Every structure is written in C-alpha cells, then in structure tokens.
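Hey, I'm writing a tutorial for new members on how sequence and structure tokens pair up, and I'd like a real worked example in the thread rather than a made-up one. If someone can provide the structure for the chain below, I'll link this post from the tutorial.
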Amino acid sequence: MTKKLIIRCSKDELIRVRQFTADALDERNIPDLQTHKLVLAVDEVCANLIIHANNCELINKIEFDIKFKPTQIAFTFKDKGIGFDINEYKSPSMDDLISARRQGGLGLILVKRIMDKIEFYNEKSYNICRLIKTYPL
C-alpha cells in the first residue's frame, strides 16, 4: 500500500506532512512511540528540503509517499531542489555543539538514529531521498 502527498515548499506545509504521516502509520496500527519517532524524522527531512534545498520557493513542489511493505516502511521525498546526501553529512560531536552554542544540527543526527537506512539518488532531474524503517519496529 502506498500513500501520496504533494506539497508546496513552504514551512506551513509541515503540519500537513506530519498529520499525513501520523494518519498513515495509525492506519497500520504502528505503536505511538514509534509513530512519534518516525514523524519526527520525516518532519526533519522535509523541513530541510523545504528550507535548504528549495529556499522556501512556493513554486517548487515536493512529492512525498509512504510505502508499506511486508518487512519495512519506506518514506520517499522527490524534489528538484539543491541535492544533499545525509549519508555524507558528518555529525558534529555533542561537545562541539554545546561549546559552539549552536542552534540546530541535532535533527539529522536524530534521523540517522531513528531510521535503519537512508538512500539518496538522482533520477530524471529529481533528487530522491528515501528513509527506510524495518519491521519489527
């Protein structure tokens, strides 16, 4: 089963993405704690795509889908913004974040901890980001 949503690149759309994700997970009876973690990861990646890859350009769109497979859930984002591979991102240490009093920087660390696999690739001028969570959750 696949659920699909298309959003404009506006931070105002994040509430729709969170609700869409929570509703889809609820339909599959995913436990609340896991749902909250997965929604957090999806929200973080989507926010980064809106803000950093697409500069909040309302004309730009992000296609988002959730695919439920027998042994995993795949969350896929497709856009034409500036590509970024989270797998290439070197997470700063907590000491560095604290000493620099830096705001931000924790979201991608959380995404890497929540998801089992993260894929980035290009296809027909689109950037594809896929977050995969394996069952059992």
